[in-house]
Amino acid sequence: QVQLVESGGGLVQAGGSLRLSCAASGSIFSINTMNWYRQAPGKLRELVATSTSGGRTNYADSVKGRFTISRDNAKNTVYLQMNSLKPEDIAVYYCNADMLGDYGWGDYWGQGTQVTVSS
After folding, report:
1. Contact 112, 93 (CB under 8 A)
2. Under DSSP, is residue 89 helix (H, G, I), strand (E, B) or coil?
3. CA torsion angle for 96, 22, 80, 18 (degrees, to 10)?
4. Which of 51, 77, 88, 109 is least surrounded, with the fewest CB atoms within 10 Å of its CB?
């Protein structure tokens, strides 16, 4: 069964850093785009960062210059390095990926990891 598992969330003071990880497991033949989304209380889920299989990255304006997405294709893992964290970054962060498994291409989501920033 193909799945994504996030880790690395937690509580940090404003200005601090966290690194999120998301590992894909199961029978995976290929991974296309890998994304990080977040959802703050009472708000819609928003796209934070994207990493394509070709190595391109893209960021939401609110995190540009502070967050960095990277991936280790050998480990089927994507990371989100978050620096200079602000209280407005508080949210549940979700990993998302387009992956080719035994039953074809699918859009997969992780379970989410909570990020809390204290002011």
Report:
1. yes
2. helix
3. 130
4. 88
Across the chain, the runs of DSSP E, i.e. the strands, are 3-7, 10-13, 18-25, 30-39, 46-51, 57-59, 67-72, 77-82, 91-101, 104-109, 113-118
Question: In this predicted model, what pLDDT tens digit does every residue of 93-107 receive, in sequence order?
Answer: 999 999 999 999 999
Question: Residues in the chain, how many?
Answer: 119
Structure tokens at 35: 């994304």
Is the pLDDT at 116 greater than 90? The verdict is yes
Written as six digits, the tokens of 91 are: 């949210």
Rg (CA), the chain: 14
Asked if residue 37 lies in contact with residue 48, where contact means CB atoms within 8 angstroms, the answer is yes
CB 91 within 8 A of CB 82: no
**Structure tokens, 67:** 């967050």
In angstroms, rounded to a whole number, what is the distance separating the alpha carbons of residues 117 and 93?
13
Q: Give the DSSP letter of residue 53.
A: T
